[in-house]
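JOB MANIFEST
job_type = single_chain_structure
chain_count = 1
residues = 176
[input]
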Amino acid sequence: GIFSSVQVNYVPRDTALLQGKYNTMQFNDTLDLEIICMLDKPYDSEFEAKITNKTNGLLGPGLSYSINKRNAFRGAETLTLGVNGSYEWQTNRMLRREGTVMNSFELGADVSLSVPQLLFPRGYTYPYRWPVSTHARLYVNWLNRGGFFRMLAFGGNLTYAFSTSEVLSHSVTPFR
């Protein structure tokens, strides 16, 4: 995930330089391999805006922003930081006449790290034929539903993703 393009070229070996040194050998069947890799942009960001209209008479906007850092620790890792928020106010006139105002809001943040290898305790490593990855995520969310409840939630997960063949892929989440 750190390269935007990879180009592989096969180039015939120049035998004119080698003719004088090895007169009896012919190198016409030898190709040199040339690999050209272009690094991708190190940062990627995403901005999202939405408007929510619910059947209980609440209406409001929501925003979220995230930024990705590719190759964060020089091992093809992807580090993602994100924030989100929304606010909803009451539009139902019948409920306003009764003297209740149910404005609500939500604020949150999360951080996640994706590593292109399986990270186990004690440094266990094993060569894999197909791509593998470890995903870790931590988040916090503050939710206030006016007139009903307030909630502060913390969470996280750890997921291992791997393939056992070209068509079979697996995902194991030992911690959530």
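[summary]
The chain has two helices and nine strands.
The mean pLDDT is 85.
exit_status = 0
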